[in-house]
Write a structure and sequence with these properties.
By secondary structure, the protein is α/β, with parallel strands linked by helices. The protein folds into 2 domains: 285 residues, Alpha/Beta hydrolase fold, catalytic domain (Rossmann fold), CATH 3.40.50.1820; 118 residues, no CATH class. The chain contains 14 helices and 9 strands. It has a 9-stranded mixed sheet, sandwiched between helices. Helix 5 runs antiparallel to helix 6.
Length: 419
């Protein structure tokens, strides 16, 4: 048994389909939870990175700060509770975050030779975890790369083959994918050179550069789909089994980035009978639609995670951090938005139909209580049965990965204290 910051820590590894690969570790986790007994179980999930070391570093930093907060006088007996932590590890892939002036950034995208080599590498990476049929489709797409610069038919076919990876996707309709899939591939690639508010105007250069950006966006959608599967099947099953083994234990779901989507999907799945209620849900710069909890996105469509609210699945606080400085969620949704629609105004921000919750908070949702994220020391009066939007803009959350600082971990500890 591992320990992190005096927490009993159990790494739970899931495959792309949500199957648990570390059954022995899970059995040890259950035995510790029931036999000690533990009062609280924390499930925490990383985002789009595929590096176990980075995920573990995230968990370590987060838990160290939580441990320090437990002893604050405003939290009373919180330090005396007994905690077990399940660190969720799932097969994510990297999303390219920057476009600097180097071979891997803007200059690389403008150089057709470098950009085409990069696109070929991205196609190879997409094969990891793909089905045999999907790998064959990607091989066919790779064979079309030399023709893409001047052949629109080849562009159309290339995009069709790549998007076949998402043929069974159950992504939220407010995420833009249905709108993207209706368009010819050549039209989608052309949009990647349009002006926008995300600072990427004109950087894509050749068609090869646009292809690289399109493949980056496809990776984003594949990872969003996968995170939902892992949450709805793997982690939800683990929570159900834990509650059968230790019926009185409090369960806390925490997710960063696409791990936030994973945990929202877990909560949504737990709403299906037999209903199991987690005690808190904390979303840290989550990567899903800012209309994910909405009853109506303005076009008559409910958010994919609306059941979490309607069915009152979470007993205690639902907390969601966001920040205008989260350029990763902002950029990813800016790209998706540009491809999904014709209007390029307000891309990625709160006025964008396809914006992200980690950038803008939960929107078009009546059940929202808004708070500024503040320094540790002043606790929150969280509303129950609502989304508690915590705005970390202005430096409290400096970037997408800034979710283990004292202010963010204090907000989570305050949620623990309400359970």
């Amino acid at each position: 048994m591992q320990t992190i910051a005096e927490f009993d820590f159990f790494p739970l590894v899931f495959d792309r389909d949500g199957a648990l690969e570390s059954q022995d570790e899970f059995e040890t986790f259950l035995a510790r939870a029931a036999g000690w007994p533990a009062s609280d179980a924390i499930f925490i999930a990383h985002g789009f990175r595929n590096d176990v070391g980075e995920a573990t570093a995230l968990y370590t930093s987060f838990l160290k700060n939580v441990r320090a907060h437990l002893h604050r006088p405003e939290f009373g007996e919180l330090a005396s509770r007994r905690y077990v932590v399940a660190g969720v590890y799932w097969p994510s892939k990297a999303f390219r975050e920057r476009y600097g002036d180097d071979a891997e950034g803007t200059r690389g995208l403008q150089n057709p030779t470098l950009a085409m080599a990069d696109a070929k590498q991205q196609l190879e990476e997409l094969k990891t975890g793909a089905t045999p049929a999907q790998r064959r489709a990607l091989d066919k797409a790779a064979a079309l790369l030399p023709k893409l610069e001047r052949d629109r038919d080849a562009q159309d076919r290339f995009v069709e083959l790549v998007l076949s990876l998402l043929s069974r996707s159950r992504l939220d309709k407010t995420e833009g994918l249905p709108q993207i899939k209706k368009q010819p591939g050549s039209q989608l690639l052309a949009k990647l050179d349009d002006g926008s508010a995300d600072g990427t105007r004109g950087v894509f250069g050749s068609v090869a550069g646009k292809v690289g950006q399109f493949l980056n966006m496809t990776t984003w959608y594949v990872m969003k789909d996968r995170s939902g599967t892992v949450g709805a099947k793997g982690v939800a099953d683990a929570v159900r089994t834990l509650r059968k083994t230790a019926p009185d234990i409090r369960v806390h779901l925490v997710g960063h980035s696409l791990g936030g989507r994973l945990m929202a999907a877990c909560a949504r799945s737990l709403a299906v009978r037999p209903k199991v209620q987690p005690d808190s849900l904390t979303l840290l710069e989550a990567a899903f639609s800012h209309y994910g909890f909405s009853a109506d996105n303005g076009r008559g469509t409910a958010g994919f995670f609306r059941d979490v609210i309607d069915k009152k699945i979470v007993k205690g606080p639902v907390v969601s951090t966001f920040s205008k400085e989260d350029t990763v969620v902002g950029k990813a949704y800016a790209i998706s938005s540009r491809l999904a629609r014709d209007n390029s105004r307000d891309i990625g921000d709160a006025a964008d139909e396809f914006g992200g919750i980690g950038r803008n908070g939960a929107l078009k949702t009546d059940e929202v209580a808004s708070w500024p994220l503040h320094k540790a020391g002043t606790t929150y009066e969280y509303a129950i049965g609502m989304i508690n939007n915590l705005d970390g803009s202005g430096g409290m959350i400096k970037n997408h990965g800034d979710v283990t600082n004292a202010a963010v971990t204090y907000a989570f500890t305050a949620a623990l204290a309400r359970t």
